[in-house]
Design goal:
- There is one protein chain.
- About 50% of the residues lie in helices and about 15% in strands.
- The protein is built from eleven helices and eleven strands.
- The chain has helices at about 10-15, 25-50, 60-65, 80-95, 95-115, 120-130, 250-285, 295-325, 330-355, 365-380, 385-395; strands at about 75, 75-80, 135-140, 155-160, 165-175, 180-190, 200-205, 210-215, 230-240, 285-290, 290.
- It has a four-stranded antiparallel β-sheet, with helices on one face. Strands 3-6-7 form a three-stranded mixed β-sheet. The chain has a two-stranded antiparallel ribbon with strand order 1-2.
- Helix 2 packs parallel to helix 4, helix 5 (about 95-115) runs antiparallel to helix 6 and helix 7 runs antiparallel to helix 10.
- It is globular and about 80 Å long.
Length: about 400
């Protein structure tokens, strides 16, 4: 059966036939995500952003749609391809970065950690409920002193008989106050690293465990329809089987971060496309000096430049997705995508706002909300500077970290 055409952005789609590069299955995933975003998120997102409200009741609907952990196989997960997952990220972030972030935290971080590094018992316990949206997970890596240097982690886990005891603090942890389980990364004594040696290990911490406290961060001017938290870990006692057996060292959390960064490459282009759509619509309906502002050369130049960067960014995302499906995607290539997509999306948001004029700062248009959210996206999963250094190292062979 031929997939019907996707709604929205007809003029943008007409300039560049991106659909022709996709399989029918990929178009089906994109259509499902676009319909969900338009029907379930867009009607309420401006009000939710204004009130700093996270609409938890949508989580089971995301699970029923197959979006949670969709790139994983088994345990109730969809087993979709990397490009399909990327297209879902693009469509959800076209509505709001907070909802793509939810899907990333749940699927690319928490579920990926369990799927990659967990025991069979851990996978059976957590993954089916998380895929269905019945259980929520979070990924506790970043600490209050800063997120760019996880090697300086101060959270510790120590053996106490047959148990583990975790002490420390984490910050900017998405979903933590809603989560049923936290993937907590902590430093443990590891004699295989020599005398006094330590290694980073991952633990599955049910959030009802005594000593675990998650407090939503207030006062955010970005990602207001999403939840990020401080976590306190004070003598959190866990059984021996809480340890993720397959993760040892920073390669564990980094393997999950690369999954989330890949989703951002696509997602940021969704926010960019939304801003371009708003500017394009306004340029044909708002008249100044007796004609639509879109009839002016400077406005058309802005629209053309925005279109170029949206299409280039989506093509880059597609290329990275095809590499990922072949098992050939490298961390440096992910850094290219994350750095480019977020940087260009922010510039597109700023240019779109100029076309919208003063009305562009209001909730009548999504542009300022996207711009504010993208400032968070720019920081998490690696700042611009970190990705520049990753690429500098790839180019020169010299480590400037």
């Amino acid at each position: 059966m031929t997939t019907p055409p996707l709604p929205r952005a007809p003029r943008i789609d007409a300039v560049f036939d991106f659909d022709a590069l996709l399989s029918e299955e990929e178009r089906d995933w994109q259509q499902k995500a676009r319909a969900f975003a338009q029907e379930r998120i867009l009607p309420i997102i401006e009000d939710d952003f204004e009130k700093a409200h996270f609409r938890r009741e949508l989580i089971p609907e995301l699970g029923a749609a197959g979006f949670l952990g969709m790139h994983l196989s088994g345990y109730g997960c969809a087993g979709a391809g990397a490009v399909s997952y990327g297209l879902v990220c693009l469509e959800l972030e076209a509505a709001d970065s907070g909802w793509r972030t939810f899907v990333s935290v749940q699927g690319s971080l928490a579920m990926s950690a369990i799927a990659k590094y967990g025991s069979e018992e851990q996978k059976q316990r957590w993954l089916p409920g998380m895929a269905a949206g019945e259980l929520v997970g979070c990924f506790a890596l970043t600490e209050p002193q800063g997120g760019s240097d996880p090697a300086a982690m101060t959270t510790t886990a120590r053996r106490d008989g047959d148990a583990w005891v975790i002490d420390g603090a984490k910050r900017w942890i998405g979903l933590a106050s809603l989560a049923d389980v936290a993937v907590v990364w902590a430093r443990v004594d590891d004699p295989s690293f020599g005398e006094g040696g330590q290694a980073v290990r991952g633990f599955l911490v049910p959030t009802a465990t005594p000593g675990f406290t998650a407090t939503p961060i207030a006062g955010k001017l970005s990602m207001r329809a999403s939840v990020q938290c401080d976590i306190a870990l004070e003598g959190v006692r866990l059984p021996a089987d809480a340890l993720l057996p397959g993760a040892r060292g920073l390669s564990g959390p980094f393997g999950c971060l690369n999954e989330a960064r890949y989703g951002i490459v696509w997602g940021a282009m969704g926010a960019a496309r939304s801003c371009l759509e708003a500017a394009l619509e306004r340029s044909t309906t708002r008249e100044v000096f007796g004609k639509p502002i879109g009839a002016n050369q400077l406005t058309q130049a802005k629209l053309a430049d925005m279109l170029l960067e949206v299409e280039k960014g989506i093509l880059l995302a597609l290329h990275l997705g095809r590499l990922k499906e072949r098992g050939a995607l490298t961390p440096a290539q992910i850094s290219v995508g994350k750095l480019n997509s977020v940087r260009e999306a922010l510039e597109i948001a700023h240019q779109a706002r100029t076309i919208l004029g003063g009305d562009g700062i209001t909730g009548a248009f999504p542009v300022m909300r996207h711009a504010a959210n993208l400032e968070s996206v720019r920081t998490y999963e690696g700042t611009d500077e970190i990705h520049q250094l990753v690429l500098g190292r790839a180019l020169t062979g010299l480590n400037a970290f």
